[in-house]
Structure formats: C-alpha cells, structure tokens
UniProtKB/TrEMBL annotation, chain A:
Cellular location(s): Cell membrane
Protein name in UniProt: ATP-binding cassette domain-containing protein
Assigned protein family: Belongs to the ABC transporter superfamily. Drug exporter-1 (DrugE1) (TC 3.A.1.105) family.
Molecular function as annotated in GO: ATP binding; ATP hydrolysis activity
Record keyword Transport present: yes
Organism annotation: Microbispora catharanthi
Length: 315, 276
C-alpha cells in the first residue's frame, strides 16, 4: 500500500532523507521510530505530497507521490506533527470546514463533525475558538479532522504526543478499529510501547536512513534474547547462588556484586526460570527478586540508533 | 464510513472547484465575524482619508480648469483604497502560509486554485464594503456628488472594484514570497502608496516634469481615476496620453491584464511554495 525506494530529500546542507526504503502492506500498521531529527516527519510529508522528494520514488495506494499527487490526495488522511487548524474558528466550524472541503453535503459534514466531537470528548468545547484550546484538545481536534472521511491510507505523525493517558487509549482504540476495517496506517512515535501495541512492523530511522525494520519481536530478538535475573537477599548468598545457577544453566552469568544481582542470557525463557527457581530453593539461598527479562523496544531503540554514532567515532 | 472518489466528469470537477472556492471564502467571513474589531479597523482608514482630504485639502486647493476640488478628489481616494487592498491580501496570505492549516489544505483534495481564489472573493467583498462606506462618507460629510446617471455611477464603482480585485491578486502573489505579515506589508505598501501619488489621484498632472509625467500618464492608477471621474461625471484634467484619453478602456485592460498575469502566477507559486 505504501512503497518507497531510495527517497532522498535535502534542505540546504541538511540531508534529511538519504535513501529511505519502506514497504507497508495493505491493512497493516507500520511504526516509524527514530531520534529527533531522524527524518520521520520529512518522510511523512513526502508520502503525503506536502514535500517533493529530490530523488527516489514512492507510491501510496497505487499513486506516485509526484506524478499522481492529485489522485493520491483522495486516498490519504493526515494528522501532522503540528496541529493544522484554523485558530480563529470554533472546533465545530473547523471540522465542518474540512468536511465541506471533502465535498460532503452540508448536512453530512455537520453530522460528521458532531460525531467526531463526541468521540474525541470535545463536545463541551465545540463552540469555542480553537485559539482557546489546551495543547491536548488541539491535538484531539486535529486527529478528529484527519478522520472525517475514511481514506484507505492514514498517516499520523506523533499522534499521541501531548495526550493524557485516557485520550491515548481512546485513540489507540479508534485506530485499531480502523485497521480492522482495512485501513493501512503509518504512524511515527516516540513512545515505544505505542509502537509495540499498535504496529505490525517497525522501521527504525536514524540520520535519514532506515537502520532496522521488522516486527517488534524480531527487532527485540536482534538486540538480544531473554535473560533471567536474580537479586540475592544478602552478600553471603551471592557465591552459593551463582554456583546453583551455573549448575542448571549453560550461559555465563554476569555478576553485579554491589547490587547482589546476576543476569544470565537464556534461550528457552520460562523453562530456564523454573529450573533456576528450583536450584536456588534446593540450595537454600535467600532470594529477593527473580524474573525473566525481555528486552524492551527502548533498548532496541538505543542499541540501534546508537550504533551508527559509534561507527562514525571509529571511522 | 465515508469514502472518497475523484470527480467523475469535467462538470463535477468544475462544480467542486467552485464549491471549494466558496467554502474557503466562507472561512474568511467566519473569521471576520469572530473579530468585528478588525472590520471596523479596516474601514477606519478609508473614512479618515475621505474626511481629511475632503476638508483639509478640499477647501485649500483649486483646480486649474475650475471645478470643485472635492469632486475631483473623491475618485482618487476611492482608487487609492482599492490599490491598497493588495496590502491586506498580501498580509493575510503570508500569515496563512506560515500557519499549519495550509498543510491540511494541501493534503486534502481541494481544487488547485480554490484556496487563493476563495480568499480573493472574501477580500473583494471587503473592498465593496469600503467603497460603500467611503461613498456614504463622501456624500454626507465631504460634499462629494456624482453628476451622471445612476447606471454610469454604478459602472464607475464596478470599474474601481475590478481594479481592487486585480490588486488583490497582485498582493496575493507578493504575499507568497514573504515570510510573515510585516514583510508582506513592507513588500506592498512600501511602493504602492508612493505610486498612488505618482498618478492623477490628488493633483492634475500638468505641472509634472516630462519624465515623471510620462510615468504618471501610463500608471494604471491614473487610468482608473480618470475612468471613475468620467463615469461619475466629476471634473477631470486635460488628457495628453492615450490611456487618459480612453480611460474606461485603458483601466479595463490594465485590470484584466493584472489578473491574467498574477492569478495564474500566484496559483502556481502556491502549489510549490511549501513543497520545496
Ligand atoms: N523545512 C526545513 N528546512 C530546513 N531543514 C529542515 C526542514 N524540515 C526538516 N529539516 C531538517 O531535516 C531533518 C529531519 O527533520 P524531521 O522533522 O524529518 O525529523 P523528525 O524525525 O520528524 O524529528 P522529531 O522526532 O523531532 O519530530 C532535521 O535535521 C531538520 O533540521
Ligand atoms: Mg517529526
């Protein structure tokens, strides 16, 4: 549904995109991650015809983003990183205005505005000018505006930034429903749990390139597998504890004496945990905490986006 | 679930383009309604000009060929206000382009020219409102009287409004090159205001030195003022050049030419402005 090859974009001397490849199948959710300035917004703007790429090619819903831009605009919805609203008009007038610009009949536009105000909890503020809205309310109105019609492809640039937890969950819910109905969604986010919850596939960008792509679990596996971590009650428990763990696990434990903790990489997750628990119990060692740790997307993010910087230092 | 299809026929495409234009114009009207002070502020300047020039200069200046100076002056003030509608147009377009809303306009399937055309329609209605206010002030306070048939008088206003519309497109084009409202003001008012004095708006051209007179003779603003004077039956001054001998034709041509040049340029510029 979204297919990009070698997309380049330069602003003066800044190379914002240096050959980005992206492939998002129909009906799936792609999460675009990356540190500030990685080029996520630029990529979204290229794909939504707001920026003309300097090189490479991209197609969205079967339309080329440069040659077929007019037709493409009938097939996409966009919620940009910054709210695109009329500050002077009321929330309701804004939604009606955008609805009318989609050529909805006046009555339909009005009804749709009402529904969306309701869904995004803005009915109370509907008749106030947007200039008086709080940041999160503005954000919600902007998201509502991007959902007036149901385009086959939806782009959302940091949709939940600035939203309170309740609004965030509500938006996830709306998005999940849209995707279930067949919408293809590309979202950028700084919240890795959001990508973890919503995205089928994740592309990690850094300095204008995609540095890794795959399902959330594949990316986590790439950074490292599961680990068993044990914290002992007393310093005296450390030595016999390490001994017991060595007996049941093949991996070499990493020991932090000050924290009275050890961490061992494992391949068979829960089964190893059970073996460690039994061995520690049999050895009669005092244990304060015992658990199986999976790498978080945060760790994936830090590992992946730090690597290029290290390469540069080495070079 | 509402889904969209591109227009199926050329007729539908045209209907949608018109509808987009009026929806955008409607947006400007709604904005004005939320700031009534703004409308008042925009009407104050023309009113002050009318009264100030009418009283202060009206009594002190006498025309070389005879005739009432106030009647000579009013068409000049009308024209000046129409010419300066470029300033408001440039400012509002520049401010709009700097705002986020333009992204939504550009990512939605809106007819290419509609965003600018809609604005121009709204700005034009503001011009009509200023013309109406000024003529009432002229009639009631400054002692201005048209001496022609109502139809001719109306034609005079139509010609002025057409010139105002042309200047709106000129201003729109300039507004697309600057970064904010203040720059837009400088890039339009800075040369348009002096230009209104390099014309026959306030003084007859006879006294000007040769080269300056040539400029003033061919200044589109002079043609507009002469045409308005002719249609209002107000006193004019001797005409030595073609545009001032045929002012109605000349001002029509100038206005249409300005629109024909700057409207397409502005639409093209708008399409590329943000997509560097
Ligand atoms: N209009 C512009 N003019 C000049 N440089 C720009 C422009 N837009 C983006 N850039 C530069 O391009 C690079 C990528 O910016 P982009 O906004 O795509 O990053 P991002 O990944 O969205 O970051 P963030 O997480 O902060 O939103 C940055 O170095 C930025 O400074
Ligand atoms: Mg961004």
């Amino acid at each position: 549904m979204i297919h990009a090859e070698g997309v380049r974009k330069r602003f003066g001397t800044t190379e914002a995109l240096r050959g980005v490849d992206l492939d998002v199948p129909r009906g799936s959710v792609c999460g675009l991650l990356g540190p500030n300035g990685a080029g996520k917004t630029t990529m979204v703007r290229v794909l939504t015809t707001l920026l003309r790429p300097d090189g490479g090619s991209a197609r969205v819903a079967g339309c080329d983003v440069v040659r077929d831009a007019e037709r493409l605009r009938y097939r996409i919805g966009l919620a940009g990183q910054h709210a695109a609203l009329d500050e002077l008009l009321t929330g309701r007038r804004n939604l009606e205005l955008f609805g009318r610009l989609y050529h909805l009949p006046r009555r339909t536009a009005r009804r749709r505005a009402e529904e969306l105000l309701e869904r995004f909890g803005l009915t109370q503020a509907a008749n106030r000018p947007v200039r008086t809205y709080s940041g999160g309310m503005r954000r919600r109105l902007d998201l509502a505006a991007s959902l007036i019609v149901s385009p086959p492809v939806l782009f959302m640039d940091e949709p939940t930034t600035g939203l309170d937890p309740r609004s965030r969950l509500a938006l996830w819910d709306v998005l999940r429903r849209l995707v279930a109905e067949g919408t293809t969604l590309l979202l950028t986010t700084q919240y890795l749990d959001e990508a973890d919850h919503l995205a089928d596939r994740i592309a990690v960008m850094d300095a204008g390139r995609v540095v890794a792509a795959g399902s959330p679990s594949a990316l986590k596996a790439k950074v490292g597998g599961d680990r068993v971590s044990v914290a002992f009650r007393d310093a005296a428990d450390l030595a016999p504890g390490v001994e017991a763990v060595r007996g049941v696990l093949p991996g070499e434990p990493e020991i932090d004496a000050a924290e009275r903790r050890l961490v061992v990489p494992v391949s068979d997750g829960a089964a190893s945990l059970v073996r460690v628990a039994a061995a520690l119990d049999a050895a009669g060692v005092g244990v304060e905490d015992l658990g199986l740790r999976r790498p978080t997307l945060d760790e994936v993010f830090l590992a992946l986006t730090d690597a290029p910087a290290k390469e540069k230092e080495a070079a | 679930m509402i889904t969209l299809e591109p227009p199926a026929t050329r007729a539908q495409r045209l209907r949608w383009a018109l509808s987009d234009t009026f929806v955008i114009a409607g947006r400007s009207y709604s904005q004005l309604r939320t700031q009534p002070g703004q409308i008042a502020a925009e009407l104050v300047a023309p009113v002050i000009m009318t009264i100030l020039f009418g009283y202060v200069f009206g009594s002190a200046i006498s025309l070389p060929g005879g005739g009432d100076y106030r009647n000579y002056l009013m068409p000049g003030i009308f024209m000046q206000v129409m010419a300066l509608s470029a300033v408001a147009a440039a400012t509002s377009v520049a401010e709009d382009m700097a705002r986020g809303i333009i992204d939504r306009f550009r990512a939605q399937p809106i007819a290419r020219a509609a965003v600018l055309a809609g604005r121009s329609v709204a700005d034009m209605s503001k011009d009509w409102l200023s013309l109406a206010t000024m003529s009432v002030c002229g009639l009631l306070i400054a002692g201005w009287r048209p001496h022609s048939t109502p139809l001719e008088t109306l034609a005079g206003f139509a010609l002025l409004a057409l010139f105002g519309y042309a200047m709106i497109w000129l201003g729109t084009y300039i507004g697309l090159f600057v970064k904010n409202g203040a720059q837009a003001d400088a890039a339009t008012f800075g040369w348009l205001f002096p230009m209104t004095f390099l014309a026959n708006a306030f003084v007859p051209l006879e006294g000007l030195p040769g080269w300056l007179r040539a400029i003033a003779d061919w200044n589109p603003m002079s043609a507009v003022v002469s045409a308005a004077r002719e249609l209002f039956g107000n006193p004019g001054s001797a005409a030595a050049s073609w545009p001032l001998q045929h002012p109605v034709t000349a001002s029509l041509c100038w206005s249409l030419l300005i629109i024909a040049v700057f409207a397409p340029l502005a639409v093209r510029r708008y399409r590329t402005a943000a997509s560097r």
